[in-house]
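agent> Task received from the user: take the single chain below, predict its 3D structure, and emit structure tokens. No templates, no multimer pairing.
agent> Plan: (1) validate residues, (2) run structure prediction, (3) serialize to tokens, (4) report one or two observations.
agent> Step 1 OK, no nonstandard residues flagged.
tool_call: predict_structure(input=
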Amino acid sequence: DPATLPPALREMLELRLENPDASLAELAQLGGLSKSAANHRLRRLVELGRGGHQ
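)
tool_result: status=success, residues=54
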């Protein structure tokens, strides 16, 4: 449930859903993040989606 995500992850999820074809660099720019931070958040979302713990 997206409502239970920390705000930073929820924002990244919304960015990805709104920009499905955006590159990592583009998502980072849209979110005002470094590519490293954007990558970390996306990887965390994937982990959670696969049943990882929050």
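agent> Step 4: summary for the user.
The longest helix spans residues 35-49.
agent> Done.
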